């Protein structure tokens, strides 16, 4: 059986970690080399997935790939420890083995790698014009290097059997093709037979338990992409690789723009996204190894490349054209220069549902009828809302294997930050259509066979106890000694906290019990800098004791078990990068994507004080503090960030980018108040963020203001809030309202009360207790309570909740 592999070994390609490239890393004597053959699901005329009732074994988790040969079947040479090879064999026979490239494992055969192959490599390696690792990106080879359960580390795997002199060996042959020499080995055959024989009679108890989350990572080499675990089965039965073709465009920024929006739609955990370079279109075997080709270039498509793209369609491939010059069959591209790089309203047709209208930048081209015999295969999905009703998104089919394309002449892939938007009106139109743009793109991707289901919630992470003040940190630890049990546990009805000096990776983190690491020296995060927080926090007591988590349920729950007993000078704050159960006003869910500033702050307010008698004012103070945290920075005074009554942060009066939630508890004569606030700092989607406004301002004014970070703005918000509270306690509402009105969005707004047909009133301000005041002709001024009304700024309505 092994002799069959020897016929065409010149077609094998080496991977970066292969011992054929680095001969000093020969196979460990206790490891087994083997060949795995896999075939596409279509080859067997089925879409077979592992039995969902059994634990799936991911191939790359239990071996290290060394070389591959694309085609049908797709072949890998890999190495594994004896235990891991046995695990692979068990999973293979029980149909639990999952290949990283989405194909179905068909055969596993052990082989022997002879050292003589190394000399042959040096002599017979074919000349290569350019060295490139790009084909490692395009083929679905699982190039991850990860030791499996019971296996050895990569360092242990790569220990040489013998030390030899290999000075003549090249230092880096990544991407080159070589002749490999394999020969059968009697010992390996015996081991294979005995292993498979024992597998046939293995009981369920002997099958090792597998981790729930098996993902593999690809090391980045130069411009290589980050690859994550891929799903095995998709609607087209092809490996879940998405390729982006940009023509001769080499700018990494363009690729990153398109890849970023695709990942937001389909999820990095489901599909791997690569760039297909122009020289690879005719050279590399991408056609059989890709699910979707995205063509995102206005350059003319050469005849040879066009034929390859049509071949991809004829084999059941899917194409998405994004303002590209690619067309075929029943449509042609017609240029309309007056439309180029302009913002227009589009009307998207939807099956069995109302049409969608949105504003997008168009390419300057539209579609018109092509070959009459093919027009029946064309469906118009979207038109410009102009007199001609020009088609700008069309759907075409090709061949009998399920090939289809959706071609678009509107920039679905770009938001307002990615293009040269000329006017503020265009910027606003694009931003207000941003959510719809993402929805339309998702629907297109789903119709092309991709899954746009929401990715799984991120795993909860431990908390870290941090402080910008070492003295206060030590004082808190001293207080903690007398306020936790023998196990370091501080119990609470919402979240119990277990304080530990250090935390290993296996520590259990649940929504009701979270470990808190008290040693600050072990803390590091790419998303939060304690130094930046420290530099921007200028308070007497607020925000001094910080509980930080990369991923938590809700920061509103973390402080519940501490706030009532902690000394007042130890101002508590909880900060998270992401929340899985973020809370909004009225029981709403607060979405918490990466890039938000997410925090809950604890403050105490005496009942018999200006603010204690006007607790609803707190939400206004916090909203104002968020706005001033940005607009009080020199140079940032004119960033269009505003407050909206009662508890929102807005871009102008157009779009919400943050909110405030206040919960208060009265204990004797003191209010204990938890203030949850979240605002978009660096996440342009799904709506808008503060750094979008900074970038917009830089374009308009020719300035070079730097983007801001969440750690900086959280600290500045707490600092401003403490000062606003002090002013309010001293001077009452009149000490704050002039600053509040400076930034609010309601000046001069006319609204209708109670319903769309209700009486007209003018917003005049806020009363002494923080409630909105409106003036009706002939009736004077009335206050509107936030708990009884929902205020819709876009339609200028105040509508009672029922």
UniProtKB/TrEMBL annotation:
Cited SUPFAM superfamilies: Class II aaRS and biotin synthetases
Signal sequence bounds: none
InterPro entries the UniProt entry points to: aa-tRNA-synth_II/BPL/LPL (IPR045864), Biotin_CoA_COase_ligase (IPR004408), BPL_C (IPR003142), BPL_LPL_catalytic (IPR004143)
Keyword Ligase included in the entry's annotation: yes
Domain BPL/LPL catalytic residues, every copy: 531-729
GO MF assignments: biotin--[biotin carboxyl-carrier protein] ligase activity
Keywords: Ligase
Claim: Cytoplasm is one of the keywords in the record: no
UniProt region (Disordered), positions on chain: 124-177
GO-annotated cellular components: cytoplasm
Entries under Pfam families matching the protein: BPL_C (PF02237), BPL_LplA_LipB (PF03099)
Gene3D superfamilies the UniProt entry points to: Bira Bifunctional Protein, Domain 2
Family: Belongs to the biotin--protein ligase family.
Record-given protein name: Biotin--protein ligase isoform X3
Annotated organism of origin: Pipra filicauda (Wire-tailed manakin)
Gene that produces this protein: HLCS
